[in-house]
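Notebook, bench 3.
Goal today: get a predicted structure for Pentapeptide repeat-containing protein from Bhargavaea ginsengi so we can plan the truncation constructs. The sequence was checked against the plasmid map this morning, with no discrepancies at the termini. Length recorded as 213 residues. Pasting the sequence as submitted so the record is complete.
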Amino acid sequence: MTGIKVRVPKINKLLPESVWEESFEEEDASVRAVCVEGGQATSDGRVIFDGVLFRKTDFRGFRAPASELLDVVFEGCDLSNADFSRSSLHRCEFRGTKLTGAIFSESMLRDVKFTDCGGRYSSFNFSKLRQVVFEGCELESADFVDCSMKGVEFGRNRLNDISFLDTSLDGIDLTKAEFSRITVTPSKLPGCKVTREQAIGFARTFGLVVEED
């Protein structure tokens, strides 16, 4: 059970589940956005999703940078290589969703929860994360470079080859995470909670020779 309190999305129970119209083949985000209930396109091409539940929806390659997602749930969706860079995500949940190569760089994530998601090669570089929980996710080779993280929890996730370069890990608990190698900035490590075995792995990464008992 998570120790971080994340406010859940406020979804109108009367709102129908949203799906893309299969008849549209347009790749332009502003055109595709008007095909979903609760979605709208702004004059500058940004997309706004407000109070929407997406279930088993295909967003592969969807491009919607600088957009706004408020009270949105993605359940069993495919967001592989989707681009939500420079976006604002507030009270959102990603459940059992594929996020391979998804881009959330330079974004603001507040009260966001990722559960049982596949996020290999996903990017959160230069983003601000506030009250964000990752649980049961595959985040191998994901990038969290130069992020600002407060109230962020990495539970039972696979983090091998993840990069936290230039990101402060103060207050971050990695004891439940599974990894053999991650990239960190030594000066940003103080305050990070790890197991004894993980600490030995960090020491070896920094070139220290650890004598076994």
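Strands lie at 39-41, 47-55, 68-75, 88-95, 108-115, 128-135, 148-154, 163-164, 183-184. The first strand starts at residue 39 and ends at 41.
Flagging this for group meeting.
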